[in-house]
TrEMBL record:
Keywords, ordered alphabetically: Repeat, Signal
Parts forming coiled coils: none
Pfam family, one: DYW_deaminase
Protein name: Pentatricopeptide repeat-containing protein
GO molecular function: mRNA binding
InterPro entries reported for this sequence: DYW_dom, E2_motif, E_motif, PPR_At4g14850-like_plant, PPR_rpt, TPR-like_helical_dom_sf
Signal peptide span: 1-16
PPR repeats: 103-137, 173-203, 204-239, 306-340, 407-441, 540-574
Residue spans crossing the bilayer: none
Annotated family: Belongs to the PPR family. PCMP-H subfamily.
Length: 847
């Protein structure tokens, strides 16, 4: 019966046989029999042999405590689930029937066996049972018990065992202390681990390694490396390969190449044998530090016939976006006869999805199916991601539907896939129906909304995320939200986001910092933008660009130029984008000579060829300075065909200078290049109007009408106590419209009194003068201004964001309003900022 190998069938047999023989129990055995027993037990290599042995024992009537103990110990040593339950049955039965009062040794065997096999709950139960039967644990029991607690994260039980250790006075035993350090380190209680560690009077390599590995695994990589060097300095302990793997992985987490090199140099000089685990860790570390060449050398040197090493190599290539190289590693593996496992396949599938290569992706899917890897959730998730990215939603959903265990990662792959394919509605629907969301789900949907310019919706989602338990925003979330705030020009919200980042300890790296500089600059708060920029370490060109742009937008041209020069002095290589910032600053600040110098230095000094946009900046600069002829000549000398944006810059300059000829010429060019560009008609008609050429103006209007062109409606946003109010020109739907109208009348009267004359040429409609005055008075920025004045406290700055260029009437109106009501008005249009104080604007009436 025992040969059937079923534990269930065995129990009654053990029961019958031993009970029938227990009466013939012989207290004394000859020494000879004992020896025979021990040696034949040692020869038992399988559970069946153990059962045969047990069977023969009971036949012989040998059920002595010693023999039973040895049998239990041997069964535990085999370490299979079957041998362990056999051991426990023999033990349970004997304890009940043979008056075998379990000894400490037999418990130790059982607890160790169960803990090693990962049956930690049973091991802990055995420990408790031992306590209850009044048997005192010894220095071997504690480590086995603590190891079970560590593996099953049974923190409470472990702490109780610690108490017992102190009570029974084992706290000075090195072996026991090491187990405590290991237990606390594994459970993430590093302070407790360190307390035990610091109190130890003697420490060996195990003590140090437990502590170092504890730090390395818990994002305390710096502490891990520090402790390692302390160990090398202070104590005469030689690290082993486990220590080294932990230290190397800590260097990888720190992405500290210098430290990693130091550790590798130590390994080579210390004579520690370099094993496969260490090589994999080293390769991983060098790749995390972007030293791919060293990693590749190690990979080639130590042979490619190592699965872990290949996997480390491939997954790092994927992380770096070097997908072809990753697939190359897979090919090398196949060629040298190593079978890719699921970790290799994850790299392969993710490479295919990054490459959008459905053909290779399908062949990976085939390999997965042939090798039975489809039961792994993360493999299915990767396949879903791959099919979604390759626009094969049908295939993705076939896998999705078959998955019995859909995790949050699975759902996230679906959402990300929808977003990738531009189906934001479907992503939103899936997001709302998914059973459980994590930070990745929230980040995906928030960034999708921001990309779709649905800024307010993105912020709403972010706010509702705050009420979700256990979901905390990270750097990715706040980056999206900061960008949304910048677009909305919502300063209160921007300040709140910044406060949120500080309060939640979100790391302000250079990317997030740059986003915040940009956000504050777009919200018209250049001071905050600069204070964040000043706090950034490791500024890159993008960070400098954001700061220069912030200064340029706010009209601080000189400061912008100082920043630009500082950046060059610090040895950073300028790119095309930063030149746009610098030239814009010159243009807004009227720094003609400096602008020309910068433009000329682009190619000569910095090797950056000027593009359309840079030429546009120069035209703007010259036009603003009244050098229209020079600007026109500049356009004619361009090495490429000037586009409509460049002509529009010339047209804008002509409007300010009142140069009808050049304006008409520029407008003509624009109408050829970009006939849908309504702004140019408006500008041209303004030029004709100011020159009193009403016939030409009428022609412009007519040609607009014929082409079916309409100015897009102007909309203005204003933030009042954290809420965004949107006004569209002529729209009277705001609930407080009567009060807004009354306020508008009041401002208009005051402004007229001070000499404001409505700029009727801004109205491109065939209506009478009265109607024109009315239409002008309902421009969106005026509605927003009036609403701001009635709904905010005296003295507060009004911040308005307009979608189009602000018209000259609203600009003049705002200047009067700022004077009459003693308010600062910050008006952002699609071109620049207007900081309006006491009847004057920072733009100097040029925009
Ligand atoms: Zn207006
Ligand atoms: Zn202005």
């Amino acid at each position: 019966m025992a040969m059937l190998g079923s534990v269930l069938h065995l129990s009654p047999m053990v029961l019958t046989i031993t009970s029938s023989t227990s009466r013939s129990f012989l207290p004394k055995q000859s020494e000879r029999t004992k020896e025979a027993t021990s040696s034949s037990l040692k020869n038992c290599k399988t559970i069946d042999e153990l059962r045969m042995f047990h069977h023969s024992l009971t036949k012989l009537g040998d059920v002595s405590v010693t023999t039973i103990t040895k049998l239990v110990a041997r069964s535990c040593e085999l370490g299979t689930r079957e041998s362990l339950s056999f051991a426990k049955e023999v033990f349970d039965y004997s304890e009940a029937n043979v008056e075998l009062n379990g000894s400490c040794f037999v418990y130790n065997s059982l607890i160790r066996g169960y803990a090693s096999a990962g049956l930690c709950k049973d091991a802990i139960l055995l420990f408790l049972r031992m306590m209850n039967s009044g048997i005192s644990p010894d220095k071997y029991t504690f480590p086995f018990g603590l190891s079970a607690c560590a593996k099953s994260r049974a923190n409470r039980n472990g702490i109780q065992i610690h108490g017992l250790i102190v009570k029974l006075d084992y706290a000075k035993d090195l072996f026991v202390q090491n187990s405590l350090v290991h237990f606390y380190a594994e459970c993430g209680e590093l302070d407790c681990a360190r307390k035990v560690f610091d109190k130890m009077s003697e420490r060996n390599v195990v003590s140090w390694t437990s502590m170092i590995c504890g730090y390395a695994r818990r994002d305390l990589a710096k502490d891990a490396v520090d402790l390692f060097f302390q160990m090398m300095r202070d104590e005469n302990v030689t690290p082993n390969s486990v220590t080294m793997v932990c230290v190397i992985s800590a260097c990888a987490k720190l992405e500290d190449l210098e430290m990693g090199d130091k550790v590798y140099a130590f390994i080579r000089s210390s004579g520690i044998e370099v094993n496969d685990f260490m090589i994999s860790a080293l390769v991983d570390m060098y790749m995390k530090c972007n030293a791919n060449d060293i990693a590749k050398r190690l990979f080639d040197q130590y042979g490619v016939r190592n699965l872990d090493l290949c996997n480390a190599m491939a997954s790092n290539y994927v992380r770096q976006g070097l997908t072809k190289e990753a697939l190359g590693v897979l090919n090398v593996m196949m060629d040298s006869g190593i079978r890719p496992d699921r970790i290799s396949m994850l790299s392969a599938i993710s490479s295919c999805s990054q490459l959008r290569n459905i053909l290779w992706g399908k062949s990976c899917h085939g390999y997965v199916l042939r090798n039975g890897l489809e039961s792994w959730d993360n493999i299915c998730n990767a396949l879903i991601d791959m099919y979604m990215k390759c626009h094969r939603q049908d295939a993705a959903f076939r896998i999705f539907d078959q998955m019995s265990n859909k995790t949050v990662v699975t759902w996230n792959s679906i959402i990300a896939g929808y977003v990738e394919n531009g189906e934001v509605d479907a992503a939103w629907e899936t997001f709302n129906t998914m059973p459980e969301k994590n930070i990745v789900s929230w980040n995906t949907i928030i960034s999708a909304l921001v990309q779709e310019s649905m800024f307010e919706e993105a912020i709403e989602v972010f706010i509702s995320m705050q009420s979700q338990e256990g979901v905390n925003a990270d750097g990715v979330t706040v980056m999206s939200i900061a960008s949304a705030c910048g677009h909305l020009g919502a300063l209160d919200l921007a300040k709140w986001i910044y406060y949120y980042i500080e309060k939640n300890g979100i790391q302000l790296d250079v990317r997030l910092g740059t986003t915040l500089v940009d956000m504050f600059s777009r919200c018209g708060d250049p001071e905050s933008a600069m204070s964040i920029f000043n706090s950034l370490t490791n500024r890159d060109v993008s960070a400098w660009t954001a700061a220069i742009r912030a200064m340029a937008m706010a009209g601080y041209a000189k400061r912008a130029m100082e920043l630009f020069n500082e950046m060059i002095e610090q040895g950073l290589k300028p790119d095309g984008v930063v030149f746009v910032g610098a030239l814009t600053a010159c243009s807004h600040g009227g720094l003609v000579q400096q602008g020309k110098e910068i433009f000329n230095s682009m190619e000569k000094l910095h090797g950056v060829a000027p593009e359309d946009v840079h030429y546009g900046c120069m035209v703007d600069l010259l036009g603003r300075a009244g050098l229209l002829e020079e600007a026109l000549q500049f356009i004619k000398d361009m090495p490429m065909e000037p586009n409509d944006v460049i002509w529009n810059s010339l047209l804008a300059g002509s409007r300010v200078q009142g140069n009808v000829e050049i304006a008409a010429y520029a407008a003509e060019r624009i109408q050829v290049l970009a006939p849908e560009r309504t702004g140019s008609y408006v500008l041209l008609s303004n030029v004709y109007a100011s020159a009193g050429r009403w016939n030409d103006m009428a022609k412009v209007r007519l040609s607009m009408k014929e082409k079916g062109l309409r100015k897009p409606p102007g909309t203005s946003l204003i933030q009042i106590r954290g809420k965004t109010h949107e006004f569209t020109s002529g729209d009277e739907s705001h609930p407080e419209m009567p009060q807004i109208e009354a306020m508008l009348d009041e401002i208009t009267q005051a402004a007229n009194h001070l000499g404001h004359v409505p700029h009727l040429r801004n109205v491109l409609m065939d209506v009478d003068e009265k109607e024109k005055i009315f239409m002008l008075s309902r421009h969106s920025e005026k509605l927003a201004m009036a609403y701001g004045l009635i709904s905010s406290n005296k003295g507060t700055t009004l911040r308005i964001v307009k979608n189009l260029r602000v018209c000259s009437d609203c600009h003049s109106f705002a200047k009067f309003a700022s004077k009459v009501y003693n308010r600062e008005i910050v008006l952002r249009d699609n071109n620049r900022f207007h900081f309006i104080r006491q009847g004057k604007c920072s733009c100097g009436d040029y925009w």
